[in-house]
Amino acid sequence: MSSYEARFKVWRGDVRGGGLAEFTVEVNDGEVVLDIVHRIQATQAPDLAVRWNCKAGKCGSCSAEINGRPRLLCMTRMSVFTQDETITVTPLRAFPVVRDLVTDVGFNYAKAREVPAFVPPPGVAPGDYRMAQRDVDRSQEFRKCIECFLCQDTCHVVRDHEENKPAFAGPRFLMRVAELDMHPLDAAAETGLDRKTTAQDEHGLGYCNITKCCTEVCPEGIRITDNALIPLKERAADRKYDPLVWLGSKIGRRTTDRPR
Amino acid sequence: MSVVDRQEWDVVVIGAGGAGLRAAIEARERGARTAVVCKSLFGKAHTVMAEGGIAAAMGNVNSGDGWQVHFRDTLRGGKFLNQWRMAELHAKEAPDRVWELETWGALFDRTADGRISQRNFGGHEYPRLAHVGDRTGLELIRTLQQKIVALQQQDKAETGEYESRLKVFQECTVTRVLKDGDRVSGVFGYERESGRFLVLEAPSVVVATGGIGKSFKVTSNSWEYTGDGHALALLAGAPLLNMEFVQFHPTGMVWPPSVKGILVTESVRGDGGVLRNSEGKRFMFDYIPDVFKEKYAESEDEGDRWYEDPDHHRRPPELLPRDEVARAINSEVKAGRGSPHGGVFLDVSTRMPAEVIRRRLPSMYHQFKELADVDITAEAMEVGPTCHYVMGGIAVDSDTAAARGVPGLYAAGEVAGGMHGSNRLGGNSLSDLLVFGRRAGRHAAEHAAEQTAGRPAVDDAQVDAAAAEALRPFSAEGPGADPETAAARAPENPYTLHQELQQTMNDLVGIIRREGEMEQALERLSDLRVRAARAGVEGHRQFNPGWHLALDLRNMLLVSECVARAALERTESRGGHTREDHPAMERRWRHVNLLCALADRDPADPAPGQITLTREDTQPIRPDLLALFEKEELVKYLAEEELYE
């Protein structure tokens, strides 16, 4: 097994400020950036704050920026860097820093609460839900989201524009609106809730100008822009244009029990 | 003393994985003001890592399935040591718990007729696991998380506050359960972010903290799995049950070293993957134990036909329960027939077209591609056993999930013992979380509502003691001037202690156990306890991982001692407990539970063992449940007198 000494710069500090601390640290075959951060903790800086959990790309806890790019620390192999490269690890820029690599991601939890929940179809008992696979495929893609919030971090609407945060849910939660809107059995419309218009009017869909930055950083490879945001924009536009057309398409789409 | 924020709740749930969130939903829906405390961010709990599915006898794919069949499979998997009433409730209630998730927005994979699809898994007679590709745990946690948010939205509409009746305290760690006499009075903990202390006063506490895998070096478990709930219960006076049973999942990644232990889902085998040794042989056919002889295929040909026509063929032995497969892999590697990096080969590439693999096993494809440069659609994976799950846990009442001897304390999910006996079947964990999470939440809420004569009071002395205990690592003594005593007084690095603990448990109380090694493990644990009392940390209390680990060490050391002591005591091999010096399963041990309790020791001297062990007879299995099995099968497990009672 080959090993070498890598140069790392890790941002250390808190809400009052901070700077890049330099470390020289051993790297072994097959390791990821999170392994190196852990080695720094265990041998040089025991109080270095970093969030992590599963170390397998499934929980979305260890989001940070590596050489300025939003990434999961646990899924970034050291082998993507050259051995003489200095690797810089900084906290997510769009969120307030708590300490070192840990940021306050409360913005995302606040936005999650603003999206009205799934509305179960009235009169359908548990166990009687019937949906065709092809009708759940679209929403299932969005439910692959591990809530790493890298898309929220990279989105230029909020990345350097704190003032946009109150009015903008961000790609993750616009995608959540799309997911519910495309759920074959969601009965929000029956309660008078039109998810498409709320995307536009309440969650700030209009701010998005489909630069696809969110899709590029998604570690799950979800096509956020193409499959969630653009269809949502199209539907929101349709809805505003002609409610009857929308109603007709909604009724047509809801016949999910057709044989395959 | 340090700043302590105090709040009053009806029910406090420790842990926000599947069991904790299901308990919280139930308690809140039954009117209890409920607080959830969790170490990670909300929605990141270890449950997200569950891959294969939720076992529930819905009979969507094979209508022959039913709760009785599921119950039988569960007892066989657990080698009849299961707390049978739990296994019965679990098998009966699991379908309702899964269906309920759909009403909260879950989207499972579908059958052709639009119902929830179910897949095959080790030890399950029929396709039984509701799933979403190989990311079922994520779907479960997200659905429960979104249900919590839905309830908070309701509360906002009614009270103006999202958190008036249900609040999640994320990134908080509980270090003590507080008591008023025998009764639970609340919990003490700290916020990881700020280091501030927190007391939540409540007459009911549900422990749902998951497992203990972080005491072992090679594990599929995340950092949270430090046995917190097991230790909290012990310290609060509740016993732990059958801690010797630790499941080593047969298929963890073995290379590269930094990912060693990460799980490779059993779905790979359920969907057709096979295990081969370095000679290319499907070796599992050589490892079918007598108790399972009639139920598994004898030839590759027969096993392969089972995937297409399960009613007329027997299943391949790759789908034996996990304990059997893990031991077999271990034996092959030991016999020199392992893969280059010390595992065996798990192959789907020759069994399914590439696009089917990518559709059915997307996370596995991704995981191997990203972390090991292996394309599983073109080549075999290298896999080996990894510490995955603890069957042992807090001894609970089957119906109410109440811990023994501590009124107001409940436990659900992995932290509770009994349900899975000596070995858990894949898929039975997610269903366990839902079934017993709901029961724990219900009974915790009822218990809280019953406290009309006055709630248990929080004792300030206990709060002060808990705060002092939590702060101790900051005042670890320096070496001092006297060179004679300097070494003995130097602060210990918590990371070093943790690594030594993991190595000890892995090497000496691992998958194959021997008397001498376990005795040695107990000595090393004693030494580690002494050193852990001097674990010191640098810096301050704000998000300080070194401090957090120093506090978690107490729990890992307590739990590790339980595992080692119980494993030394049980002189047989059964399920997740394999003794090289006692290789047979003994019928005389079938009805024996081992209970661990905290010994009465001088807290100033950590060297002596902290755990006492007692034996207890299990309750006889109810006759109508026994009647679900053939007599010929029962005689393999049960002692003569149990059969004719």
Write out the strand line-up for the largest beta sheet of chain A, numbering strands in chain order. Answer: 2-1-5-3-4
Query: What's the main sheet of chain A like?
Result: 5 strands, mixed
How does CATH name the architecture of the largest domain in chain A? Orthogonal Bundle
Residue stretches of chain A low in confidence (pLDDT < 50, at least 5 long) are 252-260
Oligomeric grouping of the chains: heterodimer
Q: From the helix content, strand content and strand pairing of chain B, which structural class follows?
A: alpha/beta
- CATH fold name of the largest domain in chain A: Fumarate Reductase Iron-sulfur Protein, Chain B, domain 2
What's the Cα radius of gyration of chain A? Answer: 22 Å
Organism (chain B): Streptomyces doudnae
GO molecular function, one term (chain B): steroid dehydrogenase activity, acting on the CH-CH group of donors
Protein name (chain B): Fumarate reductase/succinate dehydrogenase flavoprotein subunit
Keywords (chain B): FAD, Flavoprotein, Oxidoreductase
